[in-house]
Amino acid sequence: MLISSDPVNAFVDYPDVPVPNAPDGPLAGLTFGVKDIFDVAGYPTGCGNPERRAESDVAKTSAPAVQMLLDAGARFVGKTHTAELAFSLDGINTHYGTPTNPAASDRVPGGSSSGSASAVAARLVDIALGSDTGGSVRAPASFCGIVGLRPTFGRIDISQVMPLAESLDTVGWFTRDVALYERVGAVMLGEDTAGPPLTRMIIAEEAWACLMGEDEKAALWPAVDRLAALFGEPRSMAVTPDGLAAWQETFRAVQGFQAWRAHGPWIVSRKPNLMEAVRGRFEAARRISEAAYERAVEKRAVVRERVHDILGDDGFMVLPTLPTIAPLVRATEADLEAFRARALSMLCMAGLAGVPQISLPVATVAGCPLGLSLVGPAGRDRALIGLGRKLFAEG
């Protein structure tokens, strides 16, 4: 890493290779880290696994998402740890050590973009790139008390990035505040799809019902009230006709089938030393039949149409990012898996529908961060970030 110290184990221990950046630009003077599933010129791409790291060639060019930041004047300072093969929401990695959550050191940082979130929250960098398939930017943002967006699917070029599930993978990033998030968004996102202002506020009832308790709702609701003061009385509605659990099962089938298609041949031939939890997820993915996958793809189309109809071109949903604060690092694997299942039921909507979702650091419970999410129409990512700025301006 190209900084003096890393007290939270956010960065991978690669030999330092400077990466040229533009001398000026809209992000000049800022530093950034990159999740170790993105190619960065002069570095291998280890993907959180020792065998993948050993087999990886040094990249000759940087991924387009990385290059955009370099061309905007930001300075690269290192590659950040990822959960193994980016298949985790807790961010635990026993191969390299789990990055510390700077906001709650006894709790997990979230994954799979764990090192990127940790580096930003610890003020080691201004910006850090991550990826979000099932929540790998939104969950760490909530756990670490920072800003993170899952963009509209396909909005940012994701080439030269390790795939997990190709129809769900997106490029995201972290910052500590919304003002900087807007600056980075102007670089990463380009212009939004044309449309009216996002003014129609919708409370996603089922997501609020997934909260672990009243303390979580009490902590988040003042931010909802501030939004209501800006945009008028929200409409509270049931988003899912068959429940979030059904949408979660659809998501798991799509993600799992595509994850095994991406990594299964390598796992079978290489027999890598995978963490037990990650191995279990891939074994479950291996058992998803093509027929089950095709049914899930059909159901996903229904979900997408439902979400797009609710949002229209001027609506935004308000929901908790996660059911509660970050689990303890010492939590059992069973407890972590139970949390993952509950969290995915809340996170799956944006992924299935391909719409943007931003997690904003608006609350704490027991001294630990908890994020509030806004979900907007496809292609309106910058408008959604703008809502976050208005929320904090009123806070």
Quick recap:
With 395 residues, the chain is α/β, with parallel strands linked by helices. The protein has a single domain (1-395), classed as Amidase signature (AS) enzymes, CATH 3.90.1300. 40% of the residues lie in helices and 15% in strands.
Please give a structural write-up.
The protein is of the alpha/beta class and 395 residues long. The chain has a single domain (1-395), classed as Amidase signature (AS) domain (Amidase signature (AS) enzymes, Alpha-Beta Complex). Helices cover 40% and strands 15% of the residues. The protein has twelve helices and ten strands. It has helices at 50-55, 64-71, 114-121, 138-144, 178-189, 205-209, 214-231, 244-270, 276-286, 290-311, 333-353, 381-394, and strands at 31-35, 75-80, 127-132, 147-150, 170-175, 200-204, 235-237, 315-320, 357-365, 368-375. A ten-stranded mixed β-sheet has the order 2-1-3-5-4-9-10-8-6-7, with helices on both faces. Strand 9 (357-365) and strand 10 form a beta hairpin. The longest helix is centred in the middle third of the chain and has 27 residues, at 244-270. It is globular. The mean pLDDT is 97.
